[in-house]
Amino acid sequence: MSMVIILIGLALGILTYSYSFDTNIKNVFSSYNNNKIKELLVVIVVTTMTYLFYYQYQLTNYFIVMELTTWFLIITTISDCKNKQIPIDVVIITFIIGVILLFFNPNVIWTHSLIGFVGIGGVIALISVLTKGAIGMGDALVIGTIGLILGYKMALAVLLYSLVLSGLIGLGLMAFGKVNRKTKLPMVPFMLCAFLIIVML
């Protein structure tokens, strides 16, 4: 079974890579260069997380939602870094799957999901409007979707951890003169790091 899970993770990693970098699947393992090696890290990360989630949760509903969240955050992170945009098609697909999984996942109460999506996601969206984009509307969609899938407690934890991480990294970059106070750092990568830290602790 472990080998099957690894193969599933590898397949998901390749699909994630292909979508994120707009690359034909047959070219994933061709034309090695420095950029290609960096991009192939996506395959390694997805495969590794798939196995770790299986090792921890086995083939349960929680395994599926954790896998979905990881996939979602990796794709939106790459898009946020490359294009400074959140792919709306990925948000819609993840939202639909997340709603369906609510009927099969006893670990998340639907009211907690509603609070996570409408409450936390809505508050971030309101802050985005009031601050004229200091926090992106895409960030609100991402944190709201996490809340939908895993409940408001996880969404709130990811949000708080990501704010701390982004603040620390931002201060470090400013200290080395890499950015200034007006520089906007992509937020979703910090959400991904925060999520991984939370689930691995």
Can you describe this structure?
This protein has 201 residues and is mainly α. It is 76% helix and 0% strand. It contains 8 helices and no strands. It is globular.
**Segments where pLDDT lies below 50 for 5+ residues?**
none
User: Helix fraction?
Assistant: over 70%
Average pLDDT, all residues:
84
Compute the number of helices: 8
Round the Cα radius of gyration to an integer and report it: 17 Å
Distance between the termini: 25 Å
Shape summary: globular
Order of helices and strands: HHHHHHHH
Counted beta strands: 0
Write the layout of secondary structure elements.
Blueprint: H1 2-20, H2 34-57, H3 61-83, H4 88-102, H5 110-130, H6 137-150, H7 152-175, H8 188-200
Helix pairs in contact: 1-2, 1-3, 2-3, 3-4, 3-6, 3-8, 4-6, 5-6, 5-7, 6-7, 7-8
What descriptors fit this protein?
201 residues, mainly alpha, globular
Q: What is the structure about, briefly put?
A:
By secondary structure, this protein is mainly alpha-helical.
